[in-house]
Amino acid sequence: MTSTVPTSEELAAVAELARLVREQLRTVLSGLDEAIDATLATVLAEGHLLLEDVPGVGKTTLARALGRAIDVSVGRIQFTPDLLPSDVTGVSVFRGDEHRFEFRPGPVFANIVVADEINRASPKTQAALLEAMQERSVTVDGETRALPAPFLVIATQNPVDMEGTYPLPEAQRDRFMARIAVGYPSGDDEVAMLDAHDGHDPLVDVVPVATAAALTRAISIVRAVYAAPAVKRYIVDVMRATRDSSDLRLGASPRASLQLLSAAKARAAMAGRDHVLPDDVKALAVPVLAHRVIAGAQARAAGRTADTIIRDVLDAVTVPFSREPAPAGRG
């Protein structure tokens, strides 16, 4: 079967969807354009998103606003130390009147799952999301049930040095396409926030501007965006550089290569382009890679973070300047 690169009309539809959702998110969070754009790229690539920062900077607000801006089912899970895996996936309940077990789905059976403060639950409960995030299905009592499409997990977490947190295992971090640090707002943006929240919850003003069908269609268009062999080689070179870096104890996985390419395609489509540029890869390399790698002891002692090491890797890897033209059809 032959597939073609997206048409200009299809790309315009993706760009318009991103613009409408971006406008809704901006009504709630001021001065976070970079975080919002990375969030939208992750959503359009149908990836899972990890929002990490100190308490009170708007992580949950961003996740809830996104759930409101897209007219899909939203399941919210407040992760706590006593949360059980069945509280996430669902449980089979025996119905005595019918002499049978009935499955009651948990909040994970939604298009967008907001996992609030995911690292405050035990590792066993965190692991309840592993199958859902990778396979987009849930197995309970030996029966596997498919999750609705599209399916996205948007998790928030506090830094691991905060009290009452359990660090996410490497296998779970690797399933998040991107990790975004919201950060503190500027002075002007914080004043604007005070005005917006003064006696009013701006979340109630967020209205749905995209349907599940429109999001599904946009995701399929993003997948068809063209990536030249030189761009794919550039992504692989970046991955290999993380694995060879003396500053990193653990480099990026092959899954990271796939997800960086998907995110770069989404960024290209948001800009109305039918092809990926190296700039798309560079713009999303830190959010996609930094949470997957582990800095070595010497790098940590020198005060270097995974973010700065990834940026150094990007500076060291040769960027391809020429691009092969996108073909009209691909097999």
Write out key terms for the chains shown.
331 residues, alpha/beta, Helicase, Ruva Protein, domain 3, two-stranded parallel sheet, 14 helices, 13 strands, globular
User: Uncertain regions: pLDDT < 50 for 5+ in a row?
Assistant: none
Q: Give the helix tally.
A: 14
- What percentage of the residues does DSSP assign to strands (E)? 15-25%
Question: Termini distance?
Answer: 6 Å
Write down the CATH topology of the domain at 225-331. Helicase, Ruva Protein, domain 3
CATH level-two architecture of the domain at 225-331: Orthogonal Bundle
Global morphology: globular
User: From the alpha-carbon coordinates, what is the Rg to the nearest angstrom?
Assistant: 20 Å
Count of extended strands:
13
Average residue-wise pLDDT: 87
Q: Class of the domain at 225-331, according to the CATH hierarchy? A: Mainly Alpha
The ordered H/E elements are: HHEHEEHEEEHHEEEHEHEHHEHHEHH
Main beta-sheet strand count, sense and barrel state: 5 strands, parallel
Major beta sheet, strand line-up:
3-6-9-1-10
Approximate helicity band: 40-55%
Question: What is the CATH homologous superfamily assignment of the domain at 225-331?
Answer: Magnesium chelatase subunit I, C-Terminal domain
Structural class: alpha/beta
